[in-house]
Amino acid sequence: MLLSFDDLDTAQSEVRRLLSGGLEEDLEVRLGAKTYMRTRPLVFTELDSGRDGHTVTWSAEPGGHVELSGGVALDGWQPEGDGRWVAMVPDVISTPRQLYVNGLRASWARSDWLDHADCKIGPEGITGAGALGIAAYARPSDVEVVFRVRWRDYHCPVASIADDLIRFAEPCWTNALPGTGRVGPHWDNTAVGTEIHGWSMFATNALELLTDPGFFVWNSEERTVTYLPREGEDMERADVVVPCTEQLVVVEGAHDLVLKGLSFAHTAWHLPDGYVGAQAGFTLTGASGPLGEAGSHYTKPVAALSVRGGRRVTVSGCAFVHLGGAGAVLEAGTKDSTVTACSFSDVSSGGVYVGDIDPHPAPGLADEGNTVSFNTFHGTGAEFTDSVAIWAGYTRNLTIDHNTLEQLPYSGISVGWGWNQPEAQDPWLGDNRITANRIVDVLRVAERQHDGGAIYTQGPQRGTVVEANYIDRSEYGTTANDGNGIYLDEQSSHILVAGNVVTRVGYKWVSNWAEYGVENRAAGNWTDNTITPAFSGAGSVMEDNAEGLTELPPEAVRVAEGAGAGPWPAPVAALGIPEP
């Protein structure tokens, strides 16, 4: 049965009326080609689900572009001088973190990396307001300072400046500091101001920093944005969108539902507590609360599409683009659901999140049997650079297959959670398959995120397989800053790493460094890497791996050419470090 509509709410009402009488065949809800602006998410529940063995599909009309947008048009631009243009921001927008001008992202103006060698960090803030240049800004209370420490990313708003001291908004600052108990007792060495690891910082959103085209500044008092156009942009005719809505579609307990050929665009992420990155796009939020040692207290990024407790939900051929948070989340007991043949690009946070961070979920909340396949991820982590393209937490029977991941600031695929904490023992985790993925150009040096891996795992995962993936190019050179090709971190155990091609990674091609990561096996892999791998976990075995190659053998080339979302054969880079 086919029904056509050009209004989402009308379509949903009519479909629910029809479904209440049962289904005798599959139903397709075909949407007219246009942009559907949303001020609230479209929510699918049991009332919208398939019936009697039949599915309900929401799709775009053939050849048409259907976009669900969380943005609003921004017009009325006025020239200000020096090539800058100014526009008033509607009251419905809280704090615009991005603009999209003729389909291109514009971010807050930013400084270069700041020299903080003489700055002192303490509970009150950071000294050096003058030396850092922030004291000279006309509106320091609109400034946000970004800190990068190892794998963690922090964005804390400035509250005020007193003499030479920069004070930051709470709870962001306390959550970011060592010695407060907020980051957990084992992570103080990656808090802001750590004396163990190096860290970096820069300032954003000051008019004094607006020197490069394609950037803007938000003035919260006047409620204006000031933008410096790129060459050729005519602001009297430009199509400018500012994000407003955080979520576009929420699937709450629905089943036998298909979303096909839709685009999700222009979402916001309001971040009232600032951004204190924990790992992989998760954040520490709130001023207080329980801090379980298994990492079960962190907050997942808001996503354009959220599937909670879904059954047999398929997301196929969709585009996730220009997003202020994450792309898609499958969580809260979602089972037998699939994200396939989709594209994720220009996404501020991660691409796809599967599963949750409770190691022992109730049966109805355990995620199982899901698939992420044949998708492309390009430039995710565009704003929050500690994010990963594909993340999975405590989940079983997950398939991550034939995806293409490229140009990522940090790690590519991350599966597992919990570190080596007592609460994380014997978790809901295992029988996951990470196969035939193409992961190139990760851990990009310009972003200063360290200690990751193209494929990264945590936790005991009996039955998990990492096989036939092609990993090429990370940028830090032969230092521990780079992380690894395949990184079996912390308590990663019982994992098979077989038949992968790992080339031109800066540090170790595989690492199972912790003695409590046990019974892993790396067999039949190919690499040009000559750094001795870390594979010291009890009962872990390496065998028949070809290391230090100067040329890939034909069987390795076939694996590399067959990896990714296509087209195939995919290109395979020659070995050796390319010219800068």
UniProtKB/TrEMBL annotation:
InterPro entries: Beta_helix, PbH1, Pectin_lyas_fold, Pectin_lyase_fold/virulence. Pfam families: Beta_helix (PF13229). It comes from the Bacteria. Residues 305-413 form the Right handed beta helix domain. PANTHER family: RIGHT HANDED BETA HELIX DOMAIN-CONTAINING PROTEIN, SECRETED PROTEIN-RELATED. This is Right handed beta helix domain-containing protein. It comes from Catenulispora acidiphila (strain DSM 44928 / JCM 14897 / NBRC 102108 / NRRL B-24433 / ID139908).
